[in-house]
Design brief:
Number of domains: 1
CATH class: Mainly Beta
CATH superfamily: YVTN repeat-like/Quinoprotein amine dehydrogenase
Distance between the termini: 51 Å
Helix content: under 10%
Structural class: mainly beta
Length: about 400
């Protein structure tokens, strides 16, 4: 296995073992024009771009009020991309650290329990509050279920590949996506495998993966490294349809990468997905009609508002597109090369984080930055849950903010 680093700072893994694909009802997308990507090779040193310096805001308004902060361990393989998320279990905050510790805190930051799962954590935390269960995945290819109240291990299950994204828990199923292309549906109660679905693994792909997301109450949607979306029945794993989003373009394998590492977004009867190879696609789920295809490249999840879909690009631009026509609405380039997180909608603002731990709030109408808040360490993922903005930095700082009014 060989690792390359692109000029976007993205780790790329070469893996010559390709698993066979289980064919579902395959329906190809329309032919999509793609954007030429920047490649790299073993002998060419990638271009280095300095992060754009932040310009002081004309009228700084403090919009985020801190409500929770703890520091966890950041020990482990710091060079490996890691995107851990915070889990909320009622009034508890459950966090995982890179070195294998999973901890629960009350709203005041008091530690309630802590357990070490014996290996570096690569995927988590997923929480099912109704069953008081938290799911994490480890570098040595294990899925571990913990009791949300005590931290006691309820079950653990070995997998064939490392899980690099949080699981989806729904309808008594734990859905996980491995970096070997194998998707699994496990019993929430026992961890026993219920179904498996194999997807094709490209010879070269970005190290990372999208989390499984709900398409509807009985259907899970999974994005894969070969640029496809797969819809499966959550209970049985029966494939329902497959769509291609990322379209390969270019002469080299690196240029032809089509990874979809950002979670697809399903919102108000529409589906949005974006690929490394440069396609942002909007689909009307009711009519199964493609609404638009726009040029945009990202490895991050998208955000939506009532009238727009927001993306953070590989180069660090924040872009808004009309969610029906795909027409560009605005673009903010003030954060270029700052290795932005996914955008999220919090209240009436769009939030993005960066490599210095700064959270920026933008107007969804204009893209203008209206407020900033800082934490410690580079950010890779933002979450919004129950009106809370949650972050976990690469240095182990966990913060929860609430929008002030």
């Amino acid at each position: 296995m060989t690792r390359f680093i692109t000029n976007t700072g993205v780790a790329i893994i070469s893996n010559r073992t390709v698993r066979p694909i289980i064919q579902g009802v395959a329906v190809a997308f329309l032919a999509i024009s793609s954007v030429a990507m920047v490649g790299c090779s073993k002998t060419i040193k990638p271009d280095e771009h300095k992060p754009t310096k932040l310009v002081q805001l004309e009228q700084q308004v403090n919009l985020l009020e801190p409500v929770f902060a703890v520091t966890t361990s950041a020990k482990g393989n710091a060079k490996d991309p890691l995107s851990l998320q915070v889990g909320l279990n009622g009034n508890q905050v459950i966090v995982a650290s890179r070195d294998g510790n999973v901890s629960a805190y009350d709203a005041q930051g008091k530690n309630l329990w802590q357990v070490n799962v014996g290996s570096e954590i690569t995927g988590g935390v997923a929480v099912d509050a109704s069953h008081d269960i938290a799911i994490v995945s480890t570098r040595d290819a294990k899925i571990i279920a913990l009791d949300g109240k005590t931290g006691q291990v309820r079950w653990q299950r070995p997998t064939t590949g490392t899980i690099l994204s949080p699981a989806l828990i729904h309808n008594n199923r734990v859905i996980v996506s491995g970096n070997d292309g194998l998707l699994q549906g496990l019993s929430l109660q026992s961890g026993n495998p219920v179904w498996q679905f194999a997807t094709q693994v490209p010879s070269i792909s970005v190290r990372g993966s999208a989390s499984p997301v709900l398409l509807d109450d009985s259907t899970v949607l999974i994005a894969t490294a070969d640029g496809r979306l797969h819809a499966l029945n959550i209970e049985t794993g029966q494939p329902l349809w497959s769509r291609r989003v990322g379209v390969p373009s270019g002469a080299s394998e690196v240029q032809r990468m089509t990874d979809i590492d950002g979670n697809p977004v399903v919102d108000n009867g529409q589906l949005f997905a974006i690929s490394y190879s440069g396609q942002l696609v909007g689909v009307d789920l009711r009519s199964e009609r493609i609404l638009f295809v726009q040029d945009a490249s990202s490895l991050k999840s998208l955000a939506t508002t009532n009238d727009s879909v927001i993306a953070t690009t590989l180069s660090g631009d924040v872009k808004a597109f009309n969610r029906v026509t795909g027409e560009p609405m605005w673009e903010n380039s003030e954060l270029r090369y700052r290795q932005l997180t996914n955008p999220v909608l919090i209240g009436n603002y769009i939030a993005v984080g960066d490599l210095e731990g700064v959270v920026h709030l933008l107007s969804p109408q204009t893209g203008k930055i209206v407020s900033r808040t800082s934490t410690k360490g580079a950010l890779s993922t933002l979450q919004v849950q129950a009106d809370n903005l949650m972050t976990q930095s690469q240095s182990g700082q966990v913060n929860i903010w609430r929008l002030s009014h």
